[in-house]
From TrEMBL:
Signal peptide from the UniProt entry: none
Protein name as it appears in the record: Sulfur carrier protein
InterPro entries assigned: Beta-grasp_dom_sf (IPR012675), Mopterin_synth/thiamin_S_b (IPR016155), Thi_S (IPR010035), ThiS/MoaD-like (IPR003749)
Regions annotated as coiled coil: none
A matching Pfam family: ThiS
Length: 65
């Protein structure tokens, strides 16, 4: 299905946010996630269903000064 990932169109086979993170190879990474503009906690990712056109944001920690 086609989703928006960090503002870019992308095809995925995952049906939920947890599966998408695994599909992207980020399962062991510490990342924050949002689905259609709403924050999704780690334990809720498996029940956060993706649909065609879903907007997903995945961000990792950044260092800087």
């Amino acid at each position: 299905m086609q989703i928006l990932l960090n503002g870019e169109s992308r095809d995925c086979v995952a049906g939920d946010l947890a599966a998408l993170i695994d599909e992207l190879g980020l399962a062991s990474a510490r990342v924050a996630t949002a689905l259609d503009g709403d924050f999704v906690a780690v334990r809720a990712r498996g029940s956060a269903a993706l649909r065609p056109g879903s907007s997903v944001e995945i961000v990792g920690p950044m260092q800087g000064g």
